[in-house]
Every structure is written in C-alpha cells, then in structure tokens.
Design brief:
The chain is of the alpha+beta class. It is about 60% helix and about 15% strand. The protein contains five helices and three strands; from the N terminus they run H-H-E-H-H-E-E-H. The chain is elongated.
C-alpha cells in the first residue's frame, strides 16, 4: 500500500494558472492560442507554465503546422488520485492508532 503522495507533482499543480490549464485540457486538446484566450494569461507566461507541466509529465505536445497542441496525460492525474486514495485508506485504518505520550 502506497502512503506517500508525489510532492513534486502537487507543487506543479498547486499553481492556480497551471491547475486551470489542466482543467481546460481535461476537456479537450488545445493549442497555446486557445489557452491564451481561455485563461487571459500572456503568451510568454502561459508558455512557461506549459513547459513546467510538460517537464513534469502532466501534458504532452503534438505539433500541428506552426501551432503546438497540448493534451493532458490522464494516467498521471489518475496515479496522483490513487496515491491520495491510498493515503485516505491508510488514515481510515489508523484512526484508532494512538501513540502514548512519554
């Protein structure tokens, strides 16, 4: 049973703009232009956040002419969700465990 959660991935997803990008990409594959329109972020700022998401393995790219499309990798999100589910199960099983004070 896994009881630790990927802290690096949580840090990546903790940024509000990156989380918004992930939510948008959960619904459809989008290019940078679409993401700029949807988020209102500047293109350079958005590109930096997409780079972080790509390096963390959360999104993958697909070149299409002069555009780059981004797609969410659902297995990464599912793995993180599974880690949280395991952590919750561990907490449920340990609810009655109490260490005595010295």
């Amino acid at each position: 049973m896994m009881t630790s959660v990927d802290a690096d991935l949580i840090r990546v997803l903790a940024d509000p703009l990156r989380l918004k990008i992930v939510n948008l990409l959960a619904h459809e594959t989008l290019c940078t232009t679409h993401l700029v329109e949807e988020t209102g972020a500047r293109q350079t700022n958005l590109s930096n956040h997409l780079r972080v998401l790509r390096e963390a393995g959360v999104v993958e790219t697909e070149p299409c002419g002069r555009f780059t499309y981004y797609r969410l990798r659902p297995e990464v999100v599912a793995t993180l969700a599974g880690q949280f589910a395991d952590l919750a199960e561990t907490a449920r099983n340990a609810a009655d465990n109490k260490r005595a004070c010295p």
